[in-house]
Amino acid sequence: MLTVDTFNEIEIEDDVERLLILRKRMALSQYQFAKGMGISTSYLGQIERGEVPFSPQLRVRINDYLKREKEIHEKDIFSSF
């Protein structure tokens, strides 16, 4: 179950660590998470390993992905009634 609405809700000083925690809380593989954000698995891996910088555009992609996932989850809840 998704309980995070925005990327900033995860209170960690480092964006990469926040990203890793978020992905693990969502129980997603790198492939699943990258696909949902529209980036490659290799690029996500580079970000998680600190090989490329965490960009403001990535933050936008993450928040957009979380918003879509929340909307899908809410639809699923209401469609079961």
UniProtKB/TrEMBL annotation:
Name by which UniProt lists this protein: HTH cro/C1-type domain-containing protein
Protein keywords: Plasmid
Domain HTH cro/C1-type: 19-51
Domain of life of the organism encoding this protein: Bacteria
A GO molecular function held by the record: DNA binding
